Every structure is written in C-alpha cells, then in structure tokens.
C-alpha cells in the first residue's frame, strides 16, 4: 500500500495567524494530491486538487487565496490556511487518490482556531 | 458518480456479526462498489471493494445483490475497534481519481 503522513497532527492557533499543513507520500511518488476538509459530524468534502509543478484546482466555494496549496515535489504537498478564523477549525485530510483501486489517506490534521 | 443510501447509524454487540446495508439503485455497469471506514479522528481507510461477485478479505465480506442495486458489508465478529463511520461509495474512474464520500453509517459496538 501507500503510506501518507501529515504534520502536524493537531494545531491550535490564534485567529489571524497562518498555519501550514504538510502531507508527505513516504513510499511512492504522488503527482496528484487531494485535500479534504471535514467538519464535526459531517463527511469529507473535497477542497482542492494539487498537481506537482502546476497550480491547484479548487472546488466551488473554496477560496484559493485563503487556502494556499503547494505541490513542489512528488513527495510533498502543503496546505496553508492564511489568516485563519474560528470557522476554519476543521479536520484536514490529504490523499494521493486511488492507486490500484484503493484510495489512501493521510491521518489528518486537527486545526483549532481560537 | 451514482448515489448511495445508507442508514445513519447502527448498533452492534461485541463479537456478533454486523451487516451494514447500502442501496445504490442507479448504479451503472462499470461502477465498482467501494467500502471505507473512518475511525474517530483518523483518515478513512479502505475496507473492501467489488464489482459483481461477493468478495472476502481479512477485514470483511462484501455481498452484492444479483441486480447490483444493493450491497451489504459484513463484519463477521465485531470488536470495539470496529466502531467507526462506514462509507459505501461507487466509483468507475481510472487511477488517480478520488472517491466522493456520502454521510455513511456510524457503527457503535457495545461490549
């Protein structure tokens, strides 16, 4: 299988600060990385898709200037939540998509904005 | 991708079998039926998938109706660790696609 890690696993920050979440594929090269957001008691919602070496594509309603995605290498994609506010508090999950009929996911990052 | 319908929640007793149903009446001939689960505060993990025939693996069994309009995920002996949200998802794309998650079924396991 594919191993995906995320860092940090949880972060608490003050309103107005920026937070960077790293997603690493440890044993394979990921040309694509999907970023999801999950609010309490809700399902995963796709936010954006990053592609190595090119601009990310964002789902409708997701502000690209607020959620900056960088996919500079085949093993690292980052999501930066800029000027975070309490409504951005959520569980953020990355995934390289389906590989051999199975989709692998990172363990998630719990963001709490005070 | 076609839609699936699952009960919001189910309860089970530890060490008893659990049958988690999923309806997908608009499934197309090329849709695979995938099941994932999400333990609390973790990313989703793959459970099983199938196309037409029943499937077994070390985690679970997948029973697919003959008309493919419904399927059932079977956990043969539920453990406390199986308490999670279970998602039934249809997918007909190639590699490097992504699955679209519905609300799933929250399974509670009582000791």
Write up this protein.
- The complex is a heterodimer of chains A (about 110) and B (about 110).
- Chain A is mainly beta and about 110 residues long.
- Chain A is about 0% helix and about 55% strand.
- In chain A, the strands form three sheets. Chain A has a six-stranded mixed beta sheet with strand order 2-12-9-4-5-6, with no helix packed on it.
- Chain A is globular, with a radius of gyration of 13 Å.
- Chain A starts with a strand and ends with a strand.
- The model of chain A has no long low-confidence stretch (mean pLDDT about 95).
- Chain B is mainly beta.
- Chain B contains no helices and nine strands.
- In chain B, the strands form two sheets. Chain B has a five-stranded mixed beta sheet, with no helix packed on it. In chain B, strands 2-7-6-5 form a four-stranded antiparallel beta sheet, with no helix packed on it.
- In chain B, a hairpin with a 6-residue loop joins strand 3 (about 30-40) and strand 4.
- Chains A and B meet through strand 9, strand 10 and strand 11 of A and strand 3 and strand 4 of B.
Spatially, the strands of the biggest sheet of chain A line up as 2-12-9-4-5-6
Low-confidence stretches of chain A: none
Helix content of chain B: under 10%
Shape of chain B: globular
Strand elements of chain B, count: 9
Summarize the entry for a quick read.
The complex is a heterodimer of chains A (114) and B (111). Chain A has 114 residues and is mainly β.
Topology (SSEs and partners):
The complex is a heterodimer of chains A (114) and B (111).
Chain A: E1 4-7, E2 10-13, E3 19-25, E4 32-38, E5 45-51, E6 54-58, E7 67-73, E8 76-81, E9 90-95, E10 97-99, E11 102-104, E12 109-113
Parallel strand pairs in A: 2-12
Antiparallel strand pairs in A: 1-3, 3-8, 4-5, 4-9, 5-6, 7-8, 9-12, 10-11
Chain B: E1 9-13, E2 18-23, E3 32-38, E4 45-50, E5 55-56, E6 61-64, E7 70-75, E8 84-91, E9 105-110
Parallel strand pairs in B: 1-9
Antiparallel strand pairs in B: 2-7, 3-4, 3-8, 5-6, 6-7, 8-9
């Amino acid at each position: 299988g594919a191993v995906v890690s995320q860092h940090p696993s949880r972060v608490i920050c003050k309103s107005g600060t920026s937070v960077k979440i790293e997603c690493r594929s440890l044993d394979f090269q990921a040309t694509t990385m999907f970023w999801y957001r999950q609010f309490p008691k809700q399902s995963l919602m796709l936010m954006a898709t990053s592609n190595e070496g090119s601009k990310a594509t964002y789902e409708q309603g997701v502000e690209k200037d607020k959620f900056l995605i960088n996919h500079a290498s085949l093993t690292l994609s980052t999501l930066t939540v800029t000027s975070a506010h309490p409504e951005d508090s959520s569980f953020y999950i990355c995934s390289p998509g389906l590989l051999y009929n199975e989709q692998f996911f990172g363990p998630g990052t719990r963001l709490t904005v005070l | 991708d076609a839609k699936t319908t699952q009960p919001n929640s189910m309860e089970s007793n530890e060490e008893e079998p659990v049958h988690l149903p999923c309806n997908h009446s608009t499934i197309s001939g090329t849709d695979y039926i995938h099941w994932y689960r999400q333990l609390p505060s973790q990313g989703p993990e793959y459970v099983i998938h199938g196309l037409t025939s029943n499937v077994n693996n070390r985690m679970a069994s997948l029973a697919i109706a003959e008309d493919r309009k419904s399927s059932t995920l079977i956990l043969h002996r539920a453990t406390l660790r199986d308490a999670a949200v279970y998602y039934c998802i249809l997918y007909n794309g190639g590699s490097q696609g992504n699955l679209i998650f519905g609300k799933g079924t929250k399974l509670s396991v009582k000791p």
